[in-house]
Design goal:
34 helices, elongated, alpha+beta, 28 strands, single chain, 890 residues
C-alpha cells in the first residue's frame, strides 16, 4: 500500500479490495492495527545537527588551521600584538560562519507543518474527527472546502470537488476531480484527476476519498526522501579558497625550510634563522583572507536584503556571480499566480483587457480605442460577476481573491468596468442557483431584476453553452442563433484556446423558472483568461541574456500554457519544449546531450526537475533554480543556488533554498547576480594585491640571501608589513565599487578559479618588480655611507609604500588605475591612516627603537617614494597588453 501503486487506473471495487476496506470505512480495531503496522501519518524528521558539530566544521577550512598555527608562532616570537590581531580575525571568521550555517536545513520539518492537523473519517460507519497523524491506508476520508488533504487518496465520490495542487505539481489553477478510473498507468501526478494528495487544499465542493498512502509513502514523503539524498556541494568560492589555502600552506613550509637552510649554510645562528623563517612564513599566509571574504559576503548580503533578496548562506552570493543557467518555475515566479481575463469576444467584437492579475486597474479596448460599456458588453460583464462566488479583497494596498481563481478573474473584469461585486449583488440579488458539476460543466444563478421579473446568468464550457443557446445578443437586440453563428463561436473559442487562454462562455435568460432556465438561453460572449507574466520579468530575462545567463522554464503546467507565457517573455530562444513524459523516456546521457537546446519543460514532476538540474550541472553549468512549491524543494537543494519565493512560497521551498526573494520578483535575481559578480571581483582584487606583495617580500629576501647580502628586513618589520598590507587597505578593496562592464561580461567559469592568465601575469609582474626595486634600493643604501640598519629602514618604508600604490593598481585587472582613481573612499582613508602610522614609526623615538627605524631626511623620503611609485607605470604597461589580448579574444 503506497504511492508507487497505480491506484488512479483501478476501478473503485479493485481499490477497495486492494486496501481491504469498504464503503463504511475501517473498524476502530482494524485502524489501530494498521496504525501499528504503517506507523503515524507523519514525515520522517530531519537528522539533528548539533551546535558543536556546526562549530567544529568551521575548522575544516585549511586557512583557519594555518592561521591557528600562525597565532602560535607569533606568540612564540613574542609578538603579542600580532598574535592577538590574528586571533581576533580568526574568531571573527569562525563566529560569522557558525551563525550563518547553524540555521540547519529544516525542509523536512517544514513539510511536516503542511500536514493537516485533523481529519474527518468514517470508522465503523460513523463520521469521526481524528488527528491527521492517525489516518491509515484504507481509511474513508470526508473532504469539504477549506480542508487540507491528510493523505494521498483515491476519490470515491465527488460533488464539484476541486483542489489546489500548486505546491505539489506547480499547476496554477485548481484541479477539478472525478471518481472514474483513468486508463493510463504512466500518467504524471498533475493529470491524476481522480486522486487527491497529502498537503494540498480543497478549494471547492466536497468529496469522499479512500486513503491509499500515508506518511513517507505519500508524494510529499517521496519528496522528503529526495531532500535527504541531495548532498550539499561546495561553492566555486569555497573550492577556490581551499585551493589557495593548500598552495599557501606548502609555500609557507618551503620558505621556512629554504631560508633556514641557506642562512645556516652561510654561518648564521640556527635559532636566529629559524625565527626569521617563521616570521616570513607568517607573512606569506594571508591571515586577512577569511575576514575579507566573510566581510565582503556579509556586506553583499546586507545590500541584497535592501534589494529584496535574503541570503541564508554567505557563499551563495558569490555563487550567483558564476551562475550560467537560471531554471525558473512559471507559476508565481515568472507569472503573478493570479488569473486574469486577457481577451473577450462579445457581439462579434474582440476586446483586449489591460491590467495585471487581481489589480482592478485597467480597462477594455477595441481596435485600440476604449470600449463603450453598453448593450451586450454591459450584460456580459454583469453576468460574469453575478454568476461567480469569488470575492475581491483589498488589504494593505494589494488586491487578492477569496474563492475560485477563474471566478475571481471575472469579478476583477467587472471591477475594471466600474461594477463593484457587492453593489451588483445588492441590485440583482441571487434567488436560486444550479451549482457547477463536472458533468454539466456550467453554473447558473437566478437573480431578481430591479426592472422587474427575474434574470438568469450561466457560465461554463463554451461547447456546452453554445449548444444550450437559441439566441445571440447583438448591438441591435437578440436574434435567433444560426448554425453558422455556432460554428463561428466554436472557432473563436478554439482560437483563444490556441493562445493558451482558458475560455469560459456566458449566457443569460429572462423570466424563466429554474427548471427550464438552462434551455433556449441568449449567448452573451466568451472570456479568455490566463495567469499573466510579471511585467518586470521580461526585462529581467533580457538582462540575464545580455549577461550571458540562460533562462529556462520548468513548470508543472500544460505545455500550451507554458509555451504562450515563454513566448511572451522572450524565453523561447531555441523553440524547444519538452514534457515530463519525454524527460522520463530519456536516459541520463540523452538528457545531458539535449539539455542545452531545451528552453521550456512542461508537465514535470519533482524527479524530472531534479534530473534537469543535475544534467545541466554535469554539462559544467552553475545552476540557479527558482521555485515556490513543495515540488520545487529537491531541485532547489540540488541546484548551486536555490531561490525561493517569500510571498507565495511554501515553508518547504524557503528552507530548502539558499536565497529567498521577499518580493517574489524574478528581477531581484539580476541584482543578486550583480552583487555576486562584484564580490568575487573584489576578492580577486584583494588576492592579486596581497599575493603580489608576498611574492615581492619573498623575492626580496631570497635575492639578499642568494647574493650574500645581509637580510633586508627584521622579523618585526616583516610582521608589520604583513599587518599593514593585510589590514585596512585589503578590507577597503573588499568594498570596492564594481567595474562598469560587470553585467556585460559572460559568467565566470568556476573551473578557471581566481588565477586566470591576466591575473597571474599582473601578479607576477608586480611581485617581481617589488622585489627588484626594493632589492636595488637596499643594495644602493648599503653602498652609501648608511648603516645596515638604516638601509633596512629605507627598504622597510619603501616596501610598505609600494604596496599602498599597488592597492590602487589592483582595483582592476584590466582598467587603468587612473580611471576613477579616488572613487573608493575607504581605500583613500586606509592609505591615509597607514601613512600617518608610518610617520609616527619614523619620528617617534620609542617606535623607532621597536621597529629599527630613524628620522629620515626629505631627500631620503623622496628617494623611497620615487622607488615605490615605479610600480604604477610598470603595472599600467602590463594592463595595456592584457586589454589588447582581452579585446582580441572578445
Amino acid at each position: 500500500m503506497g504511492a508507487t501503486e497505480n491506484w488512479h487506473s483501478h476501478t473503485l471495487d479493485r481499490v477497495y479490495e486492494g486496501l481491504a476496506s469498504d464503503a463504511s470505512g475501517l473498524s476502530a480495531k482494524e485502524a489501530a492495527q494498521r496504525l501499528h503496522k504503517f506507523g503515524l501519518n507523519e514525515l520522517a524528521a530531519a537528522d539533528h545537527v548539533s551546535a558543536w558539530t556546526v562549530f567544529a566544521n568551521q575548522f575544516k577550512n585549511i586557512l583557519i588551521v594555518i592561521l591557528l598555527v600562525a597565532i602560535t608562532l607569533s606568540a612564540f616570537l613574542g609578538e603579542v600584538v600580532e598574535s592577538v590581531a590574528i586571533g581576533v580575525i580568526v574568531l571573527f571568521a569562525i563566529l560569522l560562519g557558525f551563525i550563518q550555517e547553524f540555521r540547519a536545513e529544516r525542509a523536512i520539518e517544514a513539510l511536516k507543518k503542511m500536514a493537516a492537523p485533523v481529519a474527518h473519517v468514517l470508522r465503523d460507519g460513523i463520521e469521526k474527527e481524528i488527528p491527521a497523524r492517525e489516518v491509515v491506508p484504507g481509511d474513508l476520508l470526508l473532504l469539504s472546502m477549506g480542508d487540507k488533504v491528510p493523505a494521498d487518496a483515491r476519490i470515491v465520490e465527488t460533488v464539484n470537488l476541486k483542489t489546489d495542487e500548486a505546491a505539489l505539481t506547480g499547476e496554477s489553477l485548481p484541479v477539478e476531480k472525478v471518481s472514474t478510473p483513468l486508463n493510463d498507468d504512466a500518467l504524471p501526478i498533475g493529470d491524476r484527476i481522480n486522486m487527491v494528495f497529502s498537503g494540498t487544499t480543497v478549494t471547492y465542493g466536497r468529496g469522499r476519498v479512500l486513503a491509499v498512502a500515508t506518511g513517507m509513502n505519500t508524494e510529499f514523503g517521496k519528496i522528503t526522501r529526495m531532500l535527504k539524498t541531495v548532498e550539499d556541494t561546495e561553492t566555486p568560492l569555497q573550492k577556490n579558497l581551499d585551493r589557495v589555502g593548500r598552495v599557501l600552506a606548502w609555500a609557507a613550509l618551503a620558505v621556512v625550510v629554504i631560508i633556514v637552510l641557506l642562512g645556516v649554510l652561510r654561518g648564521s645562528p640556527l635559532l636566529d634563522m629559524f625565527l626569521f623563517g617563521i616570521a616570513l612564513a607568517v607573512a606569506v599566509v594571508p591571515e586577512a583572507l577569511p575576514a575579507v571574504v566573510t566581510i565582503s559576503l556579509a556586506l553583499g548580503v546586507q545590500r541584497m536584503s535592501k534589494r529584496n533578496a535574503l541570503i541564508r548562506h554567505l557563499p551563495t552570493v558569490e555563487t550567483l556571480g558564476s551562475t550560467s543557467v537560471i531554471c525558473s518555475d512559471k507559476t508565481g515566479t515568472l507569472t503573478r499566480d493570479e488569473m486574469m481575463v486577457r481577451k473577450i469576444r462579445v457581439a462579434g467584437e474582440w476586446y483586449e483587457v489591460t491590467g495585471s492579475g487581481y489589480d482592478p486597474t485597467g480597462g477594455l479596448f477595441v481596435d485600440g480605442r476604449e470600449a463603450k460599456l453598453e448593450g451586450p458588453l454591459l450584460e456580459f460583464l454583469r453576468g460574469g460577476a453575478l454568476a461567480s462566488d469569488a470575492r475581491l479583497l483589498r488589504e494593505d494596498g494589494t488586491s487578492h481573491i477569496k474563492g475560485d481563481a477563474t471566478e475571481g478573474a471575472l469579478v476583477v473584469l467587472a471591477e475594471k468596468a466600474g461594477f463593484r461585486h457587492v453593489e451588483l449583488e445588492s441590485h440583482w440579488p441571487r434567488i436560486q442557483e444550479i451549482p457547477f458539476t463536472s458533468e454539466r460543466k456550467r453554473m447558473t444563478t437566478l437573480h431578481r431584476d430591479p426592472e422587474g421579473g427575474t434574470i438568469a446568468y450561466s457560465k461554463g464550457a463554451p461547447e456546452i453553452l453554445i449548444s444550450a443557446c437559441a439566441y445571440l445578443a447583438t448591438p441591435t437586440g437578440d436574434r435567433p442563433m444560426q448554425e453558422a453563428d455556432r460554428e463561428q463561436l466554436r472557432a473563436a473559442a478554439q482560437d483563444m484556446a490556441g493562445e493558451a487562454l482558458r475560455v469560459l462562455a456566458i449566457a443569460c435568460k429572462r423570466d424563466a423558472s429554474l427548471d427550464h432556465v438552462e434551455e433556449d438561453m441568449t449567448f452573451l460572449g466568451l472570456a479568455g483568461m490566463i495567469d499573466p507574466p510579471r511585467t518586470e520579468a521580461a526585462e529581467a530575462i533580457r538582462t540575464c541574456i545580455s549577461a550571458g545567463i540562460r533562462p529556462v522554464m520548468i513548470t508543472g503546467d500544460h505545455p500550451q500554457t507554458a509555451q504562450a507565457v515563454a513566448r511572451e517573455l522572450g524565453l523561447l530562444a531555441n523553440g524547444k519544449i519538452v514534457t515530463g513524459a519525454e524527460v522520463e523516456s530519456m536516459t541520463e546521457s540523452e538528457l545531458e546531450q539535449r539539455v542545452e537546446q531545451i528552453d521550456v519543460y512542461a508537465r514535470v514532476s519533482p524527479e524530472h526537475k531534479l534530473r534537469v538540474v543535475d544534467a545541466l550541472q554535469k554539462r559544467g553549468h552553475i545552476v540557479a533554480m527558482t521555485g515556490d512549491g513543495v515540488n520545487d524543494a529537491p531541485a532547489l537543494k540540488q541546484a548551486d543556488v536555490g531561490v525561493a519565493m517569500g510571498i507565495t512560497g511554501t515553508d518547504v521551498s524557503r528552507e530548502a533554498a539558499d536565497m529567498t526573494l521577499t518580493d517574489d520578483n524574478f528581477a531581484s535575481i539580476v541584482g543578486a547576480v550583480e552583487e555576486g559578480r562584484g564580490i568575487f571581483g573584489n576578492i580577486k582584487k584583494f588576492l592579486m594585491y596581497l599575493l603580489s606583495s608576498n611574492i615581492g617580500e619573498i623575492g626580496l629576501i631570497s635575492a639578499a640571501v642568494l647574493t650574500g647580502l645581509p637580510l633586508p628586513l627584521s622579523a618585526v618589520q616583516i610582521l608589520y608589513v604583513n599587518l599593514a598590507t593585510d589590514g585596512l587597505p585589503a578590507l577597503a578593496l573588499s568594498v570596492d565599487p564594481p567595474e562598469d562592464d560587470l553585467m556585460r561580461r559572460p559568467p565566470r567559469d568556476p573551473n578557471t578559479g581566481v588565477f586566470t592568465p591576466p591575473v597571474l601575469t599582473l601578479m607576477l609582474l608586480s611581485g617581481v618588480w617589488i622585489a627588484a626595486a626594493n632589492f636595488g634600493l637596499f643594495a644602493w643604501a648599503l653602498h652609501t655611507e648608511r648603516t645596515v640598519e638604516q638601509a633596512m629602514a629605507m627598504t622597510f618604508l619603501s616596501l610598505v609604500i609600494i604596496q599602498l600604490f599597488n592597492a590602487y593598481n589592483f582595483r582592476s585587472d584590466r582598467f587603468s588605475a587612473f580611471r576613477h582613481p579616488l572613487s573608493n573612499k575607504w581605500l583613500n582613508l586606509a592609505v591615509l591612516w597607514e601613512l600617518v602610522l608610518l610617520s609616527l614609526i619614523f619620528h617617534v623615538p620609542v617606535l623607532e627603537q621597536v621597529f629599527g627605524t630613524y628620522t629620515m631626511s626629505m631627500q631620503e623620503w623622496a628617494v623611497v617614494i620615487g622607488v615605490a611609485f615605479t610600480v604604477v607605470p610598470v603595472i599600467e604597461i602590463g594592463k595595456f597588453f592584457v586589454r589588447r589580448k582581452w579585446k582580441r579574444a572578445h
